[in-house]
Amino acid sequence: MEYKVLADLQTPALVLDIDIMQANIDKMAARAKELGIPLRPHLKTPKSVHIAQMLKRAGAQGFNVSTIKEAEYFHAAGIDDLYYCVPFAPNKAARAVALVEADCLLTLMTDSLDGARAAIKAIEAIEAIEAIDGTVELDFTIEIDVDGYRSGAPLGSPDIVTAAKLFESSPRTRFAGIMSYAGASYGKTPDETRELTEQHLKALAATKADLLAAGFGCDIVSIGSTPAVLHATNLDGATEARAGIYTFQDLFQAGIGACTIDDIALSVVSSVISRQPKYNRFVIDAGGLALSKDRSTQGKPYDALYGLVCDAKTGKQMGDLVVSLVSQELGLVTSLSGLPVDLGAFPIGSLVRVLPNHADMTAAAYESYAVVAGTDEIKHIWSRTNRWDEEEE
Prior knowledge:
Elements: E1 13-17, H1 18-35, E2 39-41, H2 49-57, E3 63-65, H3 68-76, E4 82-87, H4 93-101, E5 106-110, H5 113-130, E6 138-145, E7 153-154, H6 158-169, E8 173-181, H7 190-213, E9 220-224, H8 226-231, E10 240-243, H9 251-255, E11 266-276, E12 281-284, H10 288-291, E13 308-311, E14 317-326, E15 331-335, E16 351-355, H11 359-363, E17 368-372, E18 380-383
Parallel strand pairs: 1-17, 2-10, 3-4, 4-5, 5-6, 6-7, 6-8, 8-9, 9-10
Antiparallel strand pairs: 1-11, 11-12, 11-16, 12-15, 13-14, 13-16, 14-15, 17-18
Helix pairs in contact: 5-6
């Protein structure tokens, strides 16, 4: 079927404004150039070859992925230099080895001595069973925990040097460097983010010094998060900056000052399916699944409940209308202020767009994007990859 305008789509559907996204891409590329550091964008948000190509044209020097399936998808499309920056699970060994055998420039990561041992054991077992060419070698980095946000080896732990030694001692692996993720920068002010980024840089520098003193090279010193890159005074000592959500942006990012609402490129188009004057609300067919049920703005001054409601044609915000409550397939639209909603402006079958709290989580519910540029006219339908399983033959 040919899709000309958003009204041709089955709702709910994922909408991407290419002009807004291009502006976001250009802004971050300019920021990386200003800081004098290579930019490695994260593809876990867009999961699309078309968007990866746009990022590459803007100067991306390699990419991050968050699943092996993403690595397989992008490698098949000719996009390489992929950093799988999630602590490595041994059951991914065969797929990782296959990628490297197919000349994918793949870098892996772990955050513990136990993780290093398990990874090496799994990779060496795959080599022995499948008699893979002995030249195959998998690069590993070690994540350093600097802010307690998520994963990472404790700063100063002797296990970091021991893990590097293990990777270097195996004929199937190589120690490539270190990384940190400034996850605690989300929810902080720009000044607090600058201080946190300096803390990360000092921690990475100290860890690199320990590794060099122990006789190990440290080619990669990778630091990441969109707020960290946007607000850093400098990124001296790092070899690359990782960032991802900036391509789409979302309401949480707008709330912490990483963007404005007008910078949000992603939305969900939905149909009005019920009007309820008694409750001063109408109902749309985008519920908890379609909007991800993410409440990352909850309890903040910028709380947007389950998403801001926008005009379907322009994507512009419509007063203070929000999706205030969701069930699996239904979203209830009310006004934040409690003022009367003009239900006459929303007949059954009419469309609205909803800006998401969390773009990554919302996009994950969809197989494709309807690409627009400031209007409701569809310019492209772009596919994306989802889930974790291997591609079917």
